[in-house]
Write a structure and sequence with these properties.
The protein is mostly helical. A two-stranded antiparallel sheet has the order 1-2. The protein is globular and about 55 Å long.
Length: 326
């Protein structure tokens, strides 16, 4: 049964409990000042998971290639800073645009594929970029990466520090801006059309929808977000290495999204802190077998029902008080 457009758009109206996530994120700054560097990484990975939600949750594009755009944004940001442009916001914006341009170039060719062929091609592209970055030591630094990335104080006032205070607020501002930008797109007729393509691309073609063009646009939007996340990863760590291109990075983002809930926009924002906290504490407890905890948690969440943590909590709240969480 096809849902009416009003029903689909209503999913993206502000829920009663939705401001709670942003309030908690802001309170972290005041109550956990010694852990803001780690918290900044959580926000960056939440942004990366959000980029996955655009292509997978809304457009139905099965890809493992978003780490390419994350890595390109990360290295582009580093090279921009090393080249002499030390302003962080415009540097991150330029890096995100470079990632989006790359997606716009690859998209018309890659997105003609679906299913397993698409997964394998995007995986292959990721491997190519990883090896290219490994060999191009004169640009990327190879195994050593790029370090000593100097940035000017944010807005000319807030200095970067090891404590991570400025980094955290900077990452939170970026995440909030990109989230609400993405929300506006996905709540528009274009976003509704993307969901129609996800459900039945052939039917959308029959009614005259330019399917490939819409998919490419969603791919570009996703790459822009992933590139911005990569840029912030470099800027907040003052370092970038080959790991940003690795398959592990792509899988981390995908697992975060699945844990939180695909197709709800807040899935990545919920899944990222849960995944990274469980990973952090399980690695401290046992550095060799910590993946057992991640795997068990993932199986448990998937088996309990569709929609990840977000779906489970929303259904529980609806049955209890009839409240839509997010």
């Amino acid at each position: 049964m096809t849902l009416p457009r009003e029903s689909i758009l209503s999913r993206h109206r502000i829920g009663v409990l939705e401001p709670v996530w942003w309030l908690l994120a802001l309170l972290v700054y005041f109550f956990f000042p010694k852990h803001l560097a780690f918290a900044s990484s959580v926000l960056v990975m939440a942004m990366f998971a959000l980029s996955f939600d655009v292509v997978l949750g809304f457009a139905g594009i099965l890809t493992l290639g978003n780490a390419v755009f994350f890595g390109v944004g990360a290295y582009a940001s580093a090279l921009i800073a090393i080249g002499g442009w030390h302003e962080a916001i415009t540097g991150a914006l330029a890096a995100a645009v470079i990632s989006a341009l790359l997606a716009g170039t690859l998209g018309p060719f890659v997105l003609r594929l679906t299913g397993l062929p698409l997964i394998m091609v995007t995986l292959g592209i990721g491997v190519i970029f990883f090896e290219a970055a490994n060999k191009a030591t004169w640009i990327t630094g190879g195994d050593d990466g790029l370090s000593n990335i100097d940035l000017a104080p944010l807005l000319g006032w807030f200095r970067w520090s090891l404590s991570g205070g400025a980094s955290y607020l900077y990452a939170l501002a970026w995440l909030g801006s990109l989230f609400f930008f993405t929300r506006r797109i996905m709540a528009s007729p274009f976003g509704v059309a993307l969901q129609g393509i996800r459900e039945n691309a052939d039917r959308m073609r029959l009614i005259g929808t330019p399917v490939l063009r819409y998919l490419v646009i969603s791919y570009v939007v996703s790459a822009f977000i992933a590139g911005a996340a990569g840029a912030l990863w470099t800027q907040t760590n003052a370092f970038v290495g080959l790991g940003v291109f690795s398959l592990d990075t792509a899988i981390d983002g995908l697992v975060m999204l699945v844990l939180g809930g695909i197709g709800g926009l807040y899935g990545g924002l919920i899944g990222a802190p849960v995944y990274m906290l469980v990973k952090h504490f399980s690695q401290e407890w046992n550095p060799y077998y910590w993946m057992f905890f991640i795997g068990g948690m993932l199986i448990l969440v998937v088996r309990l029902g569709r929609g990840g943590i977000l779906g489970i909590s929303s259904r529980a709240l609806s049955r209890w008080h009839g409240v839509r969480a997010v």
